[in-house]
Each structure stands twice: as structure tokens, then as C-alpha cells.
Amino acid sequence: MMQLEGALYPWRFRLVLALLALMTAAIVWRIIDLQVVDHDFLQGQGDARSMRHIPIPAHRGLITDRNGEPLAVSTPVTTLWANGKELQAGRAQWPTLAVALGQEPKAFAQRLEQNAGREFMYLVRGLTPEQGQAIIDLKVPGVYAIEEFRRFYPAGEVTAHVVGFTDVDDKGREGVELAFEEWLAGVPGKRQVLKDRRGRLIKDVQVTQNAKAGQALALSIDLRLQYLAHRELRNALAEFGAKAGSLVMLDVQSGEVLAMVNHPTYNPNNRRNRQPAALRNRAMIDVFEPGSTVKPFSMSAALQSGRWKPEDRVDVSGGTLQIGKYTIRDVSRTGGNLNLTEILIKSSNIGISKIAFDIGAESIYAVMQQVGLGQDTGLGFPGERVGNLPNHRIWPKAETATLAYGYGLSVTAIQLAHAYATLANDGRSVPLTMTRADGARDAGTQVIPQDIAKTLQGMLQQVVEAPGGVFRAQVPAYHVAGKSGTARKNAAGTKGYTENAYRSLFAGFAPVNNPRIALLVVIDEPSTGAYYGGLISAPVFGKVMAGALRLMNIAPDNLPPTLPQAVVPLDSKGGRI
Ligand code: 59J
Question: With CB atoms counted within 10 Å of each terminal CB, which end of the chain scores lower, N or C?
């Protein structure tokens, strides 16, 4: 066939061959041209441009208090960096750049010289986008910008332990910022760009994936109450020369944490000079022996046993009670026969111990467990401790007594506050929450029978209101219930107790006729002489509770009876007739 065609049209066949040969030659020439002649130039061009993906930072969710007050805000910032090698080309502009950055020109030039060999150095971080653009507009060779977000904490040290903070990469490191990381963080996007060899952006090609912003989070905290608590605790610590302190305020009905403060605290906006002691959210990560503040729960076990009524009496004379080699003491040495309410008012260790011997430690253990002492709160807060409520198959007498008046177990402040909230909520335990409880609420679990909870509320009201009671916890126009505690601290590294280091506590709730707020104040190692919980912590309780009841518009349950008003007849213009 070929031959036949070739024979038929010889000139056409040759023409096709010639054309093919020409085309092949052209291609070969082009290959040689590209691979050999122009090689260096093209290699350079290829290296010089490349498609890269760079991340688009996602906006981190806003954290607010329960009323929408901002507690953690992400603002766009510009970070300027420089390529030390490229900088050398624009030396003449260095002084202008230094002034624009607010730096001393000589020292600045020296720094640039030192970094002349480096391809990356930070010039300044966290400028406003306007400030950043103004410097980019100077067009100094080798100066570049990165867009970032920076977290700002408007309430600073007042909410530091609750809110926590993020690291330089905007990731949650502590507190709510860490606990709710997934909720807050969002997902970074991707942008395709054309960059040169030196990483200089030549062209913004396209956004391949939009950043997905994080979600906002409303905490249960009320910033007004938080400020109030912060101030009163700080003042008390200064007045009594105390080492540290915590305060926890709970909404009795919803389980919401309304305020949680600790001292010492820190400014989360300042990344430098963070002292480990100041970072501690003590209310959740420090455990302690609660001492006499647990006596109401031991008393609950007594009433629940059916063997004890509030008017029953216990002989506490002598001021000491010997249990083997172990001595139980009443610091107040009241003596005599005390009824159950008086045992709480006088805080008699002997009285509650004798009751404990009668009802057995198991029943006290059960109540303490059910109100959450030494139990997981379910909050899942970073670093939160569970504490320890020890159990025994057979309870020795000494352990029985010390459990009843608050030693040998360890709790966190949040647990102790929760236990009082349960008592205040007529014995119904509602799970705690750090976020605003909108709408549907967990009805909770009845852990103390309602009538017994109400009886205990009345007894604790006497602790505050009876003559010789803890009057410093009182609040004008409201009935308050609560219990003080003064506990010797463990001597470090021993099983014994110190002679001169105390923890002063007051826990309680109000208004007694319809309890709404539970409050715990813990003050660590007061040093100016006084150290009783009723003297150190009760006044803080009283002031903070008074402010909270007013700020939350809670109706008073203890108004003085209105005086009869003299009726003065007035004329139509309001004047006296
Ligand atoms: C106390 C304890 C330590 C541990 C004792 C306080 C014991 C005990 C061994 C001596 C001061 C003090 C397990 S006191 O909280 O009884 O709050 O207003 O630390 O008893 O056996 O110099 N509280 N406190 N006890 N330990 N172990 C009283 C009482 C309490 C008061 C005052 C005076 C203690 C009324 C405490 C308060 O109710």
C-alpha cells in the first residue's frame, strides 16, 4: 500500500518526509536550547517562584461572662519580621524604620548588623494592623508582615484563674481556654500563594479553604460578683497578712459557678514573669482538710439515722476526750450539756465525736460522699483535684471522730462550696457548671431528705444569728446560715499538725427562707495574730454575700417591720392643710 502510494505520488511522499524531518529538528533544537543553552536562566526562574499553601488563622471564639461582658477577646494583630540578608540593601532607611518601630536607631542598627546572616528575625509582634501597614508602606527591603490574632483579657487578674490563657500559637494552655479548646479554636484556613525563593509573596492566588471561626462561650461567672469577691478577698489577705485565699460562689438552684477567685493572682495579658504560685486556681487544684465546716454533714447523718433530734443533748464537759492515746479537744472549752444546735454554734469537736460514735462513721461517710466531698465534680477543669474521702472496712474510734469534725479527708474549695449549695437547695444536689445554664436544667438528685436539709438550714442560721454566733457573717435585711472553721495545717512532710499555721474558713448560704447563693471563703495562713475562721473569713463572706444579694436583686427575707406612718392630710397640691 505504502509502496503503491509512494509510487503513485512520489513528490507528495517526499514532502511529508521533509516536513517531519524539519519538525523533529525544531523540537530537538528547542530541547537543546532549554536544557543546555538557557538552562541556568530557567532553573533560576523555576526556583524563584513556587506555589505554597499558607495557613489563614481562625478567629478564636469570644469568652464572656453570663451577661455578655467580654473576658477573652481575639483581635487581629500584625507581626513584622525581617530577612537579615535583604535588610542590608536598605541601610539608608534603617533610622526611619527604627523611629517607626519606636526604637533607638543606634541600638536598632546594631541588632540588625548582628542578625545580618539570618533569614528570619522578629522585628516587633502584636502591632495593630494600621501600625503594621504604616511600616510596610515605608518599603524597607527585607521587612515583611504576618497577620495573626492575639488574645486579650479585659478583666485581667480578676478572671485569670477561671479563663486561663493561650500560648503564642493561640492554643489554650490553662483554665477555660484549655478546657474548651475545641469549642473555641475553630479551624485554620488555607491560602495558595506564589512565593519567591526568599519567601517573598509574589501573588495571592486563591483561598483554597476558608478559616472556620471558633465558637463563642458564655461562662456562668458574673463579672460584677467576680470583681467584688476579688476585692474583698484581696483586702482581707492584706489586713491579716495571709499567704493565699480562695472564694467560690454558687447559684444554689442551677449549680452555676457565679464567682471563683484566688489570691495570689496574675495578669494574663503579660506573658513574662509568671510566678507558678500565682497561676494556681487554688479553688480547684488545692486540696485541704475542711475541719469544722463539715460538721453540718455529720449532723445530717445523725438526723437521718433517726436516733437524734435537734433538741437532744450531749455532755461535752471537761474540754477534752481521751480516745486511747489520742485526745480530742474543744478549743472553746464550753463544757456542759449542749443540744445539737449548740454543738454547731460552739463548734464542739467532742460533741460531734460522741454523736459519731453513736451512729457510726459509715453513715457520715455516706453523706459526705453524696454531697461530693472528695468526689469528682465532673467539671473536667485542667489540673482539678479530686481530693480523698478515705473509707475503712472497720472504722477505728479515732478515725470516726476526726472524720466527723473534718480531718483525715481532703477536699477542694469547689467541692465544699457545692456541698453547702446542696444543703441550701433543700438537699438536692445539682451538677456544677462553669458555663451559663440557659434553659433546660438538670433537676439534680435528692441526697439529703428535704425536711432534714431544712432543719439543718435553721440550725446553721442560729450559728450566725444566735448570741455568741458568727455575727461577722451577717447581712442586713437577709437571714444568713453558715459555719466557720479553723484548721491547723499539716506540718510539711509529717503526719502531724503545725502549732502556728492555720486555714480559716467560712461557708454558708442566703437567704435562708429561699436559699439562692452558696459561698465559701478560704484564707490560708493569716499571720497578724487572729486566725479564727469566724474572725478572718466570716467578714469577707458577709460583705461579698451582701453585695451579691443586692446585685442579683434577691428579695430580702429579713426586713425590719415597717413603722406605722403618721398620716398627714395634704391638700390637692401636696401641701399641708
Ligand atoms: C484548732 C484542729 C487539728 C487536727 C485547734 C484550731 C484538731 C485535731 C487531729 C487548735 C485552732 C487551735 C486530727 S477553734 O474549726 O478545733 O472557726 O471560729 O486544727 O482539732 O484533732 O489553736 N474554730 N477548730 N482543730 N485540729 N486534729 C474552732 C475549731 C473549729 C473556731 C473557734 C475556735 C479546731 C471557735 C482546730 C472558729 O470549729
Answer: N
> What is the CA(417)–ligand 1 centre distance, in A?
20
Give the chain's mean pLDDT: 92
Q: Report pLDDT for 452.
A: 98
Q: Are 338 and 351 in contact (CB under 8 A)?
A: yes
Residues 6 or more apart whose CB falls under 8 angstroms from that of 540 comprise 232, 233, 236, 247, 506, 521, 523
- Give per-residue pLDDT as tens, 304-329: 999 999 999 999 999 999 999 999 99
Sort 105 into a burial class: Cβ within 10 Å, 0-12 / 13-18 / 19+: middle
pLDDT at residue 474, as a whole number:
98
* C-alpha count within 13 angstroms, C-beta hemisphere, residue 216: 11
Residue 1 has pLDDT above 50, yes or no: no
Q: Which residues have a catalytic role annotated?
A: 292
Which one of 410, 463, 488, 520 would you pick to mutate in the ligand 1 pocket, going by the greatest count of ligand atoms within 8 A of its CB?
488
Please state the atom number of ligand 1 nearest to the C-alpha of residue 349.
Answer: 16
Q: Is the CB–ligand 1 distance for residue 485 below 6 Å?
A: yes
Ligand 1 atom at minimal distance to the Cα of residue 484? 17
Instruction: State the Cα–Cα distance between residues 453 and 562, nearest whole angstrom.
Output: 31
Which residues make Cβ contacts (< 8 Å) with residue 356, sequence separation at least 6? 298, 364, 400, 401, 403, 404
Q: Is the pLDDT reported for residue 198 higher than 70?
A: no
DSSP 43-73: HHHHHH-EEEEEEEPPPPPPEE-TTS-EEEE
Q: How many CB atoms neighbour CB 469 within 10 A?
A: 21
Which protein residue's CA is at the shortest distance from atom 23 of ligand 1? 486
| Mean pLDDT, rounded, for 206-213 | 91
**Contact present, 479 and 461 (Cβ < 8 Å):** yes
292 lines ligand 1 (CB under 6 A): yes
pTM, full prediction: 0.86
The ligand 1 atom nearest the CA atom of 534: 18
pLDDT of 199: 64
Residue 113: phi and psi, rounded to 5, are -60, -45
Whole-number Å distance between alpha carbons of 163 and 179: 9
pLDDT at 575: 67
CA of 349 relative to ligand 1 center, distance in Å = 8
Nearest atom in ligand 1 to 295's CA: 38
Taking the centre of ligand 1 as the mean of its atom positions, its distance from the CA of residue 331, in whole angstroms, is 7
97: number of Cβ within 10 Å: 23
CA of 132 to the centre of ligand 1 (A): 61
**555 vs 25, residue with greater confidence:** 555
484 lines ligand 1 (CB under 6 A): yes
Decide whether any atom of ligand 1 lies within 6 Å of the 506 Cβ: no
Take atom 14 of ligand 1 and give the residue whose Cα is closest. Answer: 331
- Asked if 554 and 519 touch (Cβ cutoff 8 Å), the reply is no
Q: What CA–CA distances, in Å, run from 32 to 27, 28, 61, 166? A: 9, 6, 58, 57
CA of 325 to the centre of ligand 1 (A): 19
Q: What is the per-residue pLDDT across 140-152, written as a single tens digit (0 to 9) for each?
A: 988 988 888 999 9
H-state helical runs in 164-265: 175-179, 181-185, 223-239
